[in-house]
Amino acid sequence: MHRPGLAGGGGGNAGDRVLAGDAAQARRHDRGARGRGPRRAARGDRRLIRTGSWSHVVQALRHRDHRRFNATLFPALISLWGQRTGIGWLTWELTHSPTWLGIVAAADLLPGIFLSPFAGVTADRAVPLKMMRLTQGIILAHALMLAVLTANGWINVWILLALSLLTGVNQPYAIAARMVFFPHLVPRDELGTAVTINSTIFNLGRAVGPALAGLMIGPLGVASVFFLNFAAFLAHWINLFRIRAVRVERHAAQRRGMLAEVAEGLRYTARHPGIGPLLLLLVVASMMSRPLGELLPGFADEVFARGPQGLGWLLTAMGVGGLLGAIWLTGRAPGKGLTNVVLSTTLVMGLALPAFALVENFSMALGFLVILGFMLVVSGTGTQALMQMAVASAFRGRVMSLYSVVFRGMPAIGAIVLGLVAEVLGLGLAVAGAGVICVLAWAAALPRRGTLQAALEAPPED
Question: According to the per-residue pLDDT averaged within each range, which of 188-197, 256-265, 363-372 is highest?
Fold first, then answer.
């Protein structure tokens, strides 16, 4: 049936049919969960989701190209997140300003807010492997420029800002390509496990990379972190020329203009009974909790007076928590109840943020950072897994690019806001207030828990 106001002509377009299918699937799943068909709903979930033991991980990694891709992606993501930490510390050394920390972080993250929707359309149209090779090559060149300029003492905050803007423009396309490409490396019935593995690798890199950078900066200098990133991405870029996809998602699509396809992806996301609300929750959590990592150089120096060694310990604590969270979630796999897990992480983060921000004991602060690291990884991995499992393949690039907008762009806005607030109230009160907002967001989402679970934990009808 044609829906007035949607692009696609009198008979309705593919987006309309997918939206209708998603809504119907959510209603069927909800009825099954409440009434006489729970076993039938559970069988539907298992079409794409394997749970129960680590055997599902071994099964997905038996595919040669899937193993190859992850083998070099993991160290590359560790070094990439480590480079971001190095940029933060270098910014602090050059300026000693929380505001500059936020501005440089925003230059890396903020372009994703504007470019990610277009990157998603490009990924839905393009050959993902070729797009991967191009974007990873740009990351490689950026790391080399940053390393050489820093090692030779030619860097200043304005050059650093320009280089951060360069990578900020490239990253939306790199992420969109990866989000669309990695599901091609396994058969359809193993997609759920592949999503979890890829999400966990990404978040493990986010947890381990900053901790490694913090340990390297003191004895080796910040340039060493940038050279490490160059070496890791060189290996990953070469490896991409050895990989071929084992499966291609094919879907009927009527190519329209770029803006029309962006709008179609936005409509699909907004009308999906699970993806839209989940993204709204992630907006708040990303703005309020994820900028903490950008502010840790200020905590290490100004609050705890520990210098780069203290920053290393703070980041290591977050890394340990992230590692534990990733291990736990990978073993669990994206099965029933993952929606409740993601909702709970928002509450725990909201409580742990003010606890860390206001505590004066350094050891206790490390403990709270372990909790925050655990919750940040489970939240990021769980949200991405739920969205990848719920989205129709025709919209994968566009929907996951919106995830990228929120996951990368909202922390940039949050870093600026918290940095400005910290200039007036201090780092502690700024971060504590962010935690209160996370608790309020959890309370607002809690009444919709059943609807979210029904819509997100059932596989889509492509």
Answer: 363-372
C-alpha 294: how far from chain center = 16
406 belongs to a structural domain: yes
Is residue 287 in a domain?
Answer: yes
- In angstroms, the CA 142 to CA 156 distance is 16
Residue 62 neighbours by CB under 8 Å, 6+ apart? none
Torsion sign (Cα): 228, 231, 232, 234: positive
* pLDDT for the residue 236: 93
Largest CA-CA distance found in the chain, in angstroms, rounded: 70
DSSP code string of 268-315: HHHHSTTHHHHHHHHHHHHHHTTTHHHHHHHIIIIIS--HHHHHHHHH
Give the mean pLDDT of 140-165: 92
The answer to whether residue 44 is domain-embedded is no
Q: Check: CB of residue 382 under 8 Å from CB of residue 252.
A: no
Query: 426 is in which domain, residue-wise?
Result: 55-456
Residue 9 has pLDDT above 70, yes or no: no
pLDDT band at residue 349 using 50, 70 and 90 as cut-offs: very high
Secondary structure of residue 223 in the 3-state scheme: helix
* Residues 6 or more apart whose Cβ sits within 8 Å of residue 349: 285, 289, 372, 375, 376, 379, 435, 438
pTM for the model stands at 0.69
Dihedral sign, CA of 450, 12, 15, 37? positive
Highest mean pLDDT of the ranges 104-108, 120-124, 293-297, 430-434: 430-434
In three-state form (DSSP H/G/I as H, E/B as E, the rest C), the secondary structure along 311-346 is HHHHHHHHHHHHHHHHHHHHHHCCCCCHHHHHHHHH
Question: Which residues fall within 8 angstroms of residue 355, CB to CB, at 6 or more apart?
Answer: 368, 435
399 in Cβ contact with 120 (< 8 Å): yes
DSSP letters of 73-123? HHHHHHHHHHHHHHHHHHHHHHH--HHHHHHHHHHHHTHHHHHHHHHHHHH
Is residue 283 assigned to a domain? Answer: yes
Cα end-to-end span (Å), the chain: 17
The DSSP code for 7 is S
pLDDT at 371 over 90: yes
Say how many C-beta atoms besides its own lie within 10 A of residue 355's C-beta. Answer: 16
Total tally of structural domains belonging to the chain: 1
CATH number, residue 332: 1.20.1250.20
